User: Fold these one by one.
Assistant:
Number 1:
Amino acid sequence: MEWIDRFLQKREDQLLLRTLHNIEKRKGGNIVVDGKELIDLSCNDYLGLAAHPCLLQESKRMAEGYGTSSSASRLMSGDLHIHHLLEEVVADFKGKEASLVFGSGFLANIGIISAICQKGDVVFSDRLNHASIIDGILLSGAQFFRFRHNEVGHLEDLLKKERAKFKKALIVIETIYSMDGDRPPLKEIVNLKERYNCILMVDEAHATGIFGRNGAGIVEEEDLTHEVDIIMGTFGKALGSYGAYVAASKKTIDYLVNRARSFIYSTALPPSVIGANLAAIEIVKKEPFRRKILLEHVEYFRSLLKDKGFNTRGSSQIIPVVMGDNKKTIMVAHMLREHSIFALPIRPPTVPKGEERIRFSVTYHHSKEILYQVAEVLKDASNGI
């Protein structure tokens, strides 16, 4: 097993070795690690729903009614009534005919894309799409082309040159990108999708719950629900639970039930998770103040960082501060932790070399006072290196 030793040693020498964090407790936007309480700015619980009493209550109620497990895949005996109820609620929430729930966002993306596309088809993917999207494309066997991040002109050039050579064509984008926190020119991409006869799939993992009139995401906010063919998203971020969904036409969902291997061959989501998911969607609709306060605090924090001269990006609750150097990024993250701030360094291969950054994930729990403190510490840490 010397090849493993060589791999790990090389990663360590390059300051790229990943390690796990043993988190002992989570409460109100803070975590406890090694007995020390830290402000958690690496969490995706954007609306603070993970400990909401309604989610806890519904999770417990469903577990008491159905047990701790679905005990089988959906196509066997794991197909519970509450799965169908959740899918009806998601379809209504997303403004689509039907939906299907998956075990995770990764399972959803690899299942959807590898079911929709095969050899002889083509996928056009934004260069910064999530690893699960890339893996789904690779599993499909389709030809694929990456276009420069959010560059509609480059996408159109590729469509002009390549689209006619293939049968089906799929364009895949995210509506909030997980490492840059920015959003795509969605209307322009919809126009290209229609002109070049493509299917358009969007990943709303980091947008669901936060954007849109009812919190359904960027697609809702831009009034493009009918133009976007496939809307995917997760329950494990702003919705404070676990699992994922795809919303589309009834025929598309029927097709995925028969073709998406990560759905067909996975145990169905457990009842407790279904209960939390149902409660979360209801809260997003009934408590819009959560996303309003969150976005106000996000803009406050971004302005603070810019005023202090930091290179920030995006227009969402994800705020990357680009350091551009691996060693510096690690040192800044370490100094933040010494001041009870948990904000992790993001390094290659997650981001390109020279794009190393501290990724701040702002949640409903982070008050302006906390964010001001974080900005001050970050400035001192950056200047101290």
Number 2:
Amino acid sequence: MNRKPNLAVVGATGVVGTTFLKVLEERDFPFENLYIMASAKSAGKTINFRGKDYIVEELNEHSFDKDIDIALFSAGGAVSEKFAPIAAEHGVIVVDNSSQWRMDPDVPLVVPEVNPEAISMNNGIIANPNCSTIQAMLPLKVLHDKYTIKRIVYSTYQAVSGSGVKGINDLKEGLKGNDLCQAYPHPIAGNCLPHIDVFEENGYTKEEMKMINETHKILHDDSIKVTATTVRVPVFDSHSESVNVEFEKDFDLDELRAALDAFPGITVMDDPANNVYPLARDAAGTDEVYVGRIRRDFSVDYGINMWVVANNIRKGAATNTVQIAEKLLETLPD
């Protein structure tokens, strides 16, 4: 589009919402008018963005009566369930960071480096995948295209920032010796909790099922066998994942590593002899997906193990959402 869009940020005062604004500023996202929205609790606050003060508006049924082209949502599933359709009815394209619409067959689930073609299939709502799924999709897209994936085993080590302010506070206080359990059923400091989101009847948590189902949807292949164990760890920022992949055919490990390194958004850090591999602390504040510890899995004919790290609030949420919005700019009418 030639004109600048009118943009809304919904849930602008939360952990991801504030990062939306930061990423929009860093990437110099173009807009004509900006509307910042949140709950009644935050309404009336002032947020300075690009040197201009904006008053936070209370989100309500009439928030989208004004001329808005794109709305970035990060206000939770219940809010999205109610207000995303209202926005879409007013001609707004919603990019939603909650889990509400991800598995809706009529809503595209998008990682821009992986399946940008899905963006144009929207009916007013586009879903941002789960943070732990997003970072895995970049290397898995490369590997599936080249070698055809048969099976994936995810084991995740997820930062407390994925639980928002309460998770961050639980760890901060726990490190001081004050065991809070506002976000988790057990203390997180000095602990690893194999429990993210609620348990389902099949014994998996909802987070684990998100990774399984979203992998199938984004890669457009339900034949891939996927299993997952997701764990919350006492780290403030960035999710780490052990990803075990089995292929249909053999591969050259150097060629595989080079293909990963050449893919947009991926940085290979794989020199174990010099203690070089992806670290959560290094990923904090960045938008790259870092891949290392790439090695053959000798327990199967054609398999590898790899270690995948990314910042869950940026690439796993805010940056991916803004990247989708950037792609939308190419499709909006003038």
Number 3:
Amino acid sequence: MSAVRAIVLTGFGINCEEEMAAAYRLAGAEADIVHLNDVFLEKVRLDDYHVLNFPGGFSFGDDLGSGKVLSNKLHYRRLASGRRFLDEIERFLGDGKYILGICNGFQALVKMGLLPNTSGTGTQEVSLTHNDSGHFEDRWVRAKVTGDGRCPFLSGLDLIDLPVRHGEGKLVIATPEVREQILAERLNCLTYVGQDHAPTAEYPQNPNGSALACAGLCDPTGQILGMMPHPEAYLSLYNHPDWGRKRRLDPDLSEDGEGLLFFKNIVTHIKETES
């Protein structure tokens, strides 16, 4: 097949686009950083890509809540042709393609109703709101993959260290019914864990107080993944604050960062399915 192609959206306060594009390039894909307006004006078509990416940042300054203005813009905006952008996303997913949202991108996806979307109607069922700590969290956490393997970004991953940097990362769930559906379908695919490697509500291991210790959600198809930690910020072993000790304990340890595995996974999966 031809190269896997990733589109990385930017504009309106998104500021992690370079790291995300670098992650795909290091994973063997082509990555284009594209301003959202160029998509809305149909200068760039989603059809030309395999993975649609919503990076982190501070879209619209988070003035009305993180990701809220961006989610409304994405949900209601019409393209130059008059078609809804949301219809383009639905067609993109209908073609078996993938979406990744990290931090602010995750916030936008849940507020658009794309995650967890247990009802299949695109109705908002959860939100991400202010951390219980009351302040911005900028440090490393340990997370565990807890899904059932349907999301190819997470294939073969278990425990992983990742950085977080957010002020509104606490998952809240609209109803007990949605909570039960998330658990029943194992959509709570990435959790914050403590020293015993079990999901935890305790601070600081859980940096925000998320329900279900949630660090990431997928949708029922496994095609959409949203997560608060930043895998694109851990592309090299030397990004890790404790890399020296890790290397001393294992001199043969790869110089790749664990975060790069998310991107290698999806690139490999697309290549295998396309071929």
